[in-house]
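Q: Hi! Curious about what Prepilin-type N-terminal cleavage/methylation domain-containing protein looks like structurally. Here's the sequence.
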Amino acid sequence: MRDGNRALGFTLLELLIALSIAGLLLAVSGPASYKMYQSMQYREAVRDVRRALDSARYSAMVTGKPVNVVISPRDKTVLYSDKPLLELPEFIDLETETAAELSEDDTQAVIQYYGDGSSTGGTINIGRNDRWIRLHVGWLLGKVEQSVVEP
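A: Let's find out. The predicted structure is below.
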């Protein structure tokens, strides 16, 4: 047999094997990439809530006027001052502990920052599956401390 007469290319068997391997890789990596995407959204949500708290404190100190941060665990939203509403993904859980006097109803929690940087204080727990991050707002200085909640 001469090599010059053979057609160049892949055989049907080679193509089937390559497509089978690609299909297996896609089937295995699909769920893993979705979990990775949710994990990324969770970390971003923690950063966004912390950023909202820090921004509200800064705004109160600059203007000298109180600024409220309103957290709604049921709606999974965070709102402060005239800033846009921060909506968290559906799979994220929120728990709050704040001063009851500032809340209009049981569905919202309010942390108020004052012009000197102090606040009413409070705790926001942000969870996904069995992993929880705690954002604790100190009342004296209004600073936010982040920690992992041990199961």
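A: A fun detail: Residues 11-149 form a domain with the minor pseudopilin epsh fold fold (CATH 3.55.40.10).
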